Amino acid sequence: MNHPQPSGSAWHRPMLPRLSGERHRTATVLELFFDLCFVTAVAQTAAAFEHELAAGKVGHGVLGYALVFFAIWWAWMNFTWFASAYDTDDVPYRLLTLLQIAGALVLAAGASKALEEYDFTVITYGYVVMRLAMVSQWLRAARSDPERRRTCLRYAIGILVVQIGWVARLWLPDDAGLPSFFVLVVAELAVPAWAERAGQTTWHPHHIAERYGLFTLIVLGESITAATATVRAALDTEVSLGDIAPLVVGGILTVFAMWWLYFTQSAAEKLNSLGTALRWGYGHYFVYASAAAVGAGLAVEIAHLTGHAHLSRLAVAAAYTVPVALYAAVLRLLHRGTVKPGVLDAIWAVGILAVLAVTFTPSPVLATGCVTSVLVGTVVAATHRARTSIRQVR
């Protein structure tokens, strides 16, 4: 049985499950504060990624970025889904959430060293702090929600065991670092699927869709902020505004298009089962990582213009176009199954291939902005025509 948000003292409320169909459920100010603090870790990771790319360490930078971003995304995602089902907004809940934010700030402090040197000591401590706070939250839920006690205890036990693994990993020899990392990633990803089999938690589809959309906005905004800082730094050199204008215009068009493409379709209606919810949630790792990488790619383009990027022209272009193409491809996979998927599949495929093709053009950033803008217009028009046809048939 689901329950509405529990009443009682703000000091302590029983952690009963929220209604999955609760009306007017929106993100709380604490959730928004949580996101804003988490984006600090995103910014630090993207900046370190840009530094590695500009230094010509492409393989090293991409792998490090993927590893560090997993920690950010996974900690954010687990809090988001828990809050959707069990947000009591009492003092213990707020304190544990603030503890997770503190862990995120520790993680942000260690992001650069983890990405550049594969030294995960600081980032592991920050991550484990966040995850142990989640263990406490799940134990609270297990105490108050007897119907889903097994589910909550599975979450708590699973998370705790994996955190022991993360700490133990710090004492493994260097050659076991990457294999153990991937083993623990698989273990982390398996915990929700295992826990939810004992009884599904009452996450709210519209609330989850809103939370993911809000974090997408923040990540895209961080890309713009990082690119703006890079442009300003470039203008302090001998680069003229005319030289940098195509990058600015192309970058703005690209981010605007990325925003529009994300919110073209409604997500809440797709979150109607555990399987689709897991695919949606897990797929956003690539959405967020690629969105943040676009800002780093633009920074590399500007570094190349000022002579500070030790990469070939093709590699510099790919650092920008590949994340944009990945972002679009994952979005289409997440939204697939909507109106006339065959027609839309073709439109998206052409657009994604066109983004990759402009890697070989003289001005890939500006060309990417133009291609993604055309993709937005075509997708919006095709979707509108398809929905109009369906209404006429009905």
In short:
This protein has 394 residues and is mainly alpha-helical. The chain has helices at 29-54, 58-86, 91-117, 121-144, 149-169, 177-196, 205-235, 241-262, 274-305, 313-335, 341-357, 364-393.
Describe, in plain words, how this protein is organized in 3D.
The chain has 394 residues and is mainly α. Helix content is 77%, strand content 0%. It contains 12 helices and no strands.
Total count of helical runs of at least 4 residues: 12
**Low-pLDDT windows of residues:** none
What share of residues is helical? over 70%
First-to-last CA distance: 36 Å
What is the mean pLDDT? 88
Give the radius of gyration: 22 Å
Main sheet, how many strands, which sense, barrel?
Answer: none
Strand element count: 0
Instruction: Based on Cα principal axes, name the global outline.
Output: globular
Which structural class should the secondary elements be placed in? mainly alpha
Question: Which band does the percent of strand residues land in?
Answer: under 5%
**Helix-strand topology string:** HHHHHHHHHHHH
